[in-house]
Structures are given as C-alpha cells and as structure tokens.
Design brief:
This protein is about 35% helix and about 15% strand. The protein has about 625 residues and is an alpha/beta fold. It has a six-stranded mixed beta sheet with strand order 2-1-3-4-5-6, covered by helices on one side. The chain has a four-stranded parallel beta sheet with strand order 15-16-17-18. The chain is globular, with a radius of gyration of 24 Å. The mean pLDDT is about 95.
C-alpha cells in the first residue's frame, strides 16, 4: 500500500468506496467547527489519533482539548484520525488508501508527530492496526528518520511497559502544557537523527522514551529494576500536572454521526480526595484542582452558541465534591433555565444532596439516577474505602424515587479482596431493597438496573499487590446474582471473565508483553473492546507462542517489596503510602476523605515548588511554608 499519496488522490479513491461501507460520515471530516489550515504554511503538523471508531473517539475530551490547544497556534496544525471499522479497512486496503487525517486527507505518514490517546488497555491492538494501515512500522526500533514520531498519552500510559516497543515516547500526566513542550523539542531538533530527537524528547519533563531505558529481571521473572541508557533519562519519570486548569475548549466539533455521548463535555474538577483503594483515576490524577464557577458557566454559554448542543456533561471523578457545586447549578439554572438545556452531572455521591442538585437543574430529564456503591456490605465498603452505611443508600434511594425518578442504576464490583459469598449476595439484597423504595412511589413502574463488573487490581493503587479473582469463583458469583435477581423491575448486567483477564494482564504487564500484543494482532486481534470482535483464543495462543503464562500477570499475589513494571513512572503518590493503605484494607480500616485530614500521600512534597506560587484555595493540599 502506498504510504505517500496526495490528498486529491485519496479523495478520488474515497469517492469510489464510501457508499459501500457503514456510516460513511465517520470518514469524511468537514464537521462544524473543524479547523482546516494551509498545510504548507505551518511549521509543524500533529495527527491526533484515537484507536477506536469515530463514534467513540469524538466523545473523548482529552483529544478535543489537545486539538484546541495546538490549533490555537498559527504555526502549528492538528488534525484527527480514528480507527476505521473493519468494512472500511477492507475497502481502504483494496483501494490502496493509507490511513489519513479527516481535515485535509493527508496520509498519517506525512505528519511530524502522531499522538495516540490511550484511555484504556483494550485499545492496544488497534494502535498496531492503525499504524500498519498508515504504512508506518509498528515497532519504534524499525522506524527511520523519515517516519513520524509516535507518542501516547492517557490513563493507560501510567504503565507504559506493555506498549513500550511500539511508541517512541510516552507523555505521562496532564497534557495541556506537555504537548507544546513536546512540539517545541521536536521542532528544535528537526533535521537531526531520530535517536538525537528522541534524546531531546527525553529532556522534556513528563516524557518517557522506552528506547532509553531497560527493564531488568530476577530469575523468577519478576522485575528487578530499571537501567537508564542515556544521561538525559532519570527514572522514575514524574508525571506532569497543570497547576491551574486552563479554560476549557468551547468551539467543539459537532459530529457527523451519532456518538456514544451526544453532548458537550466540560471538566469542572480534576482529581479526587476520596481515596477509594481500587480507583486508578483517583490516585493518578491527584492533586484536586477545580475550575472556577465563572469559567464553567461562561464555557456553557459559549458552547451553546458555537455548537447547538442541547446537553452538557459537567465532568469530574466526584461531581458532588466540587466545592461550589450548588452555586454552579443555581447559576446555570438561573441563566439558562429557559433554553431547554439538559445538564448531566455524572459521578454523584450517594447523598440526598445529589437529588437536590439534579432537581435544581430544572431542564434535566428525569430518566434515571446513577450511583456506585461498589460493594453490597458495609464490611466490604470499608475494605475498599468506599465508606457509606447501607441505610444511607436506602434513604437516598427513597429520596430519589420520591422526586419523580423511576429508575435507579447501581454499579458494583465483584472479586474484591477478602470478598465472601455473603458480600455478593448482599448486592442482590440491596438492589431488592432499593426497588422496594421505588415501588412505594411508582408501583411496578419502578426499576433498578444493576451493573456488576469484575475487579481488576490497577497499577499505582493500594490494591496493586493483590491477584485477580479466579474464573470459577467469578462465574459462581455471577450465577448467584443471576439466581437472586429475577423478577419484575430488576435488571442485571455483568461482564465476561475473559474481558477481565485481558484488562488485567495488559494493565499489569511488563515489557515482555509487547511481543504478545504484536503476535495477538498478527493473528487477527483488534477491536478487543467490542464483544463481537474480541477473540480470547488469539490472546491465549499469543501467550503460548511466547512462552509466557497469563497467570503470572493476573493471579499472582505480589510481594510487598516487589518492583513493578510501572514503577518506571511516578504519579507523585508515594509507594509507601499505597502500601500503608493496602495493609489497612487487610484490617478493614477505612480512611476519611483527605480534605478533612492530610495523610501524607506524597503529592505535596513532590509539587511543593508549584504549590507555593498558587492562590491558597487552588489546591486542597496544605500550602508549604516559604
């Protein structure tokens, strides 16, 4: 397949194939608010890639933020690319069309930088799929001076090891400032050898270059440590943070086709102080930083004017914890109450105030309210540090139903450390009790939808030492719930255990997994996040051919002093603190919200210099003495 092809030729060939594929609107660009620049008038060109279909990628806020930041610079250009669905891939290969950008139809191979967003692990094989379709060598070591630099950012990169062979560099942490530093380093080193440019990237704080460090192993296969291969590389790589969240993008792209979230997203707060021991996002996004109410309200008004969206998602890990959430809701209601705007507040705590907030948003549709108890018993919730009395859950359910909602959605996990059959049965019991509260107000029209996922111990969390629950145990727990939750008004969803295993070995893997990922892709693995395309048999074959046991990564309990593959990066939260939290979980001892008391997670000392320069209320961590 030709790698270099003119945009005009790509357009001509596209005209012959687009009517033969599903949803051709995914592949044509031209969206309202799209930014198109003169290719030859800019100094540097970035392709922002999301390794799944347009319908999902267009809802990704991280990519939208970077698109806005780069395109604000007159000398830079950012364009987008998403993974073609298999029918489009087949048509492109037959027509000889390389993977191209939506804005100007330039082949990906002509860009200076390709930046992949990796929010979760099931996208890994799609990265290889996209690079291959673009005609770019999938392994970083095989690329030469004429190939684009390929980097990745996003939550999945906090363990960069499994994908280390495929990326030239990883951007660890917040990307708003980091993306421009990366571009600057590559612009300044343009014309030098690829290795020299990668060494220049390694000097950028927050950038990890896999070719410049080596993973060392013990005789038993565990990681012994890391060896830096260049003076520029000082391990671990500390994540980047933006001390004050910049204004959010408001000239958002309006999709050509329906997307998974047909709404405009605004991040109101980054980070979380709750300290749930299973929660990767809550640990890696510390410290908490809030956007001012005025910035959020102004952004809502600008988005409505520039896009026509009638739904806004106010995003955070715990919306109820935003300090001025009541003010925010009231101001939006006062200013925009007549605009028929629907405001979505995900991640609400199980408190009566959550119902108050949703009721205050008069324009909001009352279809369902979602809460996440995560476990069925108070004992289990103490272990995972998701502390709430069962009576509180039921009181809030009654309050929600009494205000007009007919459906409550509840999210739980099974497979928690120290979980018993009674803990699992309690999930069904709690769902039934919630339904009883609903029937007090709505009779048989009340419903409770329960989603149960299987717990995966994530890197950089207090549970990173524990194993994944075994298959027989998980399937028995799922059967128990199916048996217990029959009847009108109850709905149960659960995930397949093979999907749990995929997430587990990819999120907990080391650099040896790159060979497994490549082999699985060559066997045909792609779109692993889609049930109709996920092939666990291909992954098992890839492990067997590489002589690696899946259970080594998934079912092995880690020693307290074990070195992890992800220790090559630092989130700013001390490993000793995570270990302390893990030991407390074994005793069933919860911690209160660290807004109430600092427990010394390590964030403050690491970023003390930044914190000193900020207003007193910019972070929740105490301000260091000058």
């Amino acid at each position: 397949m030709p790698v270099y092809m003119t945009p005009d030729e790509i357009n001509r060939r596209l005209e012959r194939i687009l009517l033969s594929v599903q949803k051709p609107g995914r592949y044509i660009g031209g969206e309202y608010n799209q930014v198109v620049k003169d290719w030859d008038s800019v100094r540097f060109r970035v392709a922002l890639a999301f390794p799944d279909i347009y319908d999902l990628g267009m809802s990704n806020l991280g990519l939208a933020v970077l698109y806005d930041i780069v395109n604000r610079r007159s000398d830079l250009l950012a364009e987008r690319v998403y993974a073609p669905w298999p029918d489009m891939e087949a048509a492109m290969r037959e027509a000889g069309i390389p993977l191209y950008s939506l804005e100007t139809k330039h082949p990906l191979a002509e860009f200076d930088l390709i930046g992949f967003t990796l929010p979760y692990e099931a996208l890994y094989t799609n990265v290889l799929y996209m690079l291959d379709l673009a005609g770019i060598p999938i392994r970083a070591a095989d690329r030469d001076d004429g190939d684009p630099i390929v980097i990745a950012g996003g939550h999945a990169t906090f363990n960069p090891a499994p994908m280390a062979d495929f990326f030239d560099a990883f951007a660890i942490g917040d990307g708003e400032e980091l993306i421009l530093d990366v571009i600057r380093a590559l612009m300044e080193s343009k014309g030098r050898s690829r290795q020299e440019r990668l060494r220049a990237l390694a000097t950028v704080p927050g950038m990890l270059v896999p070719s410049l460090y080596r993973e060392l192993y013990n005789p038993d296969g565990t990681v012994a440590g890391f060896e830096s291969l260049a003076p520029e590389v000082r391990l671990p790589i500390l994540k980047r943070i933006v001390p004050i969240l910049p204004p959010p993008p408001t000239d958002l792209l309006v999709p050509n086709v329906d997307t998974v979230h047909n709404r405009a997203p605004i991040e109101i707060m980054r980070g979380c102080t709750r300290g749930c021991r299973f929660c990767h996002a809550g640990m890696v996004t510390r410290p908490v930083r809030e956007r001012p109410v005025e910035d959020v309200v102004n952004a809502v008004e600008e988005i409505i004017a520039s896009t026509g969206f009638d739904e806004i998602g106010l995003l955070s890990l715990s919306s109820s914890d935003y300090r001025r959430i009541r003010d925010l809701v009231e101001i939006i209601s006062d200013r925009l109450g007549d605009s028929h705007l629907n405001i979505n507040l995900p991640s609400l705590r199980i408190e009566t105030s959550s119902a108050d907030l949703m009721e205050a948003l008069e324009g909001s549709r009352r279809s369902s309210m979602t809460f996440a108890p995560e476990a069925g018993t108070e004992r289990m919730r103490n272990i995972i540090n998701k502390v709430m009395p069962t009576n509180q859950v039921l009181d809030v359910a009654r309050e929600v139903f009494s205000r007009g909602w007919r459906t409550i959605k509840l999210y739980f996990m099974i497979g928690h450390p120290q979980e018993t059959e009674d803990d699992v049965r309690a999930i069904a019991d709690l769902a039934k009790e919630v339904l009883r509260r609903g029937r007090e107000f709505h009779g048989r029209k009340a419903s409770v939808h329960v989603s149960v996922s299987t717990f995966v111990p994530k890197p950089h969390t207090p549970f990173q030492w524990v194993p994944v629950d075994d298959e027989d145990s998980v399937r028995a727990k799922q059967k128990l719930l199916r048996d217990e939750m029959r009847g009108h008004g109850l709905r149960l969803n659960w995930n397949d255990y093979h999907e749990t295993l995929l997430e587990a070995f990819l999120t907990r893997g080391d650099r040896r997994l790159s060979a497994v990922i490549e082999r699985a892709w060559r066997l045909g693995a792609r779109f692993d996040a889609w049930q109709e395309h996920f092939r666990p048999d291909l992954w098992r074959q890839a492990f067997e051919e590489n002589g690696i046991e899946i259970a080594f990564y998934t079912h092995r309990r880690r020693e307290l002093d074990e070195v992890f593959p992800w220790d090559v990066v630092s989130t700013g939260v001390r490993k000793s603190y995570l270990k302390q939290e893990y030991l407390r979980s074994l005793r069933g001892e919860p911690r209160s919200d660290c807004r109430q008391q600092c427990y010394g997670c390590g964030i403050m000392p690491v970023y003390a210099d930044i914190r000193r320069e900020l207003p007193d209320d910019a972070w929740f961590c105490p301000k260091p003495a000058r």
